[in-house]
Specification:
With 167 residues, the chain is mainly alpha-helical. The protein is 76% helix and 0% strand. The chain has one domain.
Length: 167
């Protein structure tokens, strides 16, 4: 039986494969990043090491399958996880804190992609046309995911209080 960490890493790798192979077929590869969304929604201080490993796996898969500079996406995803986990903190976060953490992580990933692309002298979709629309779509998705995650966590705590899980 696989443990949760292995399943989480497989889910992140699957998100990267969908991003690299399926979304380009339907023309959605530049609208949002599925691995980034998954990583930002799950980011917390407790899962940080697992998510950074998942970010490297997803980034290297995407870079390899899409013929991008190897490590560029992995670096951007890792920066997003680090920033989002730092902003979210280790306590139980409500939807507002989760949303701010996710948007900060998204901004960190975009900044790393723009900076590394300019240093390498290659183009990136992070600063391309349709930027405001893409930003609005991603922010709305991240806030929606944060609200759903916070409601789900509150429901879990109502059903089974935290002190029951610690004993």
């Amino acid at each position: 039986m696989m443990n949760r960490r292995t399943l989480l890493l497989l889910a992140i790798a699957l998100a990267a494969l969908i991003q690299a192979r399926l979304l380009p077929e339907v023309g959605l590869e530049t609208v949002f990043s599925l691995p980034l969304f998954v990583l930002l929604m799950l980011s917390s201080v407790r899962r940080r090491s697992t998510l950074i490993l998942g970010a490297f796996i997803a980034g290297f898969l995407i870079d390899t399958l899409l013929w991008r500079p190897l490590g560029q996406t992995a670096l951007a995803l890792s920066a997003a996880v680090l920033v989002a986990a730092a902003v979210r903190g280790s306590g139980d976060a409500g939807w507002a804190r989760r949303s701010v953490a996710a948007i900060a992580g998204y901004a960190a990933a975009a900044a790393v992609l723009i900076l590394s692309s300019s240093l390498l002298g290659i183009g990136t979709t992070a600063a391309g046309p349709g930027g405001p629309e893409r930003l609005a779509i991603n922010a709305a998705l991240l806030v929606f995911g944060s609200v759903v995650g916070a409601r789900r966590r509150a429901q879990q705590l109502r059903e089974r209080p935290l002190d029951d899980r610690l004993s």
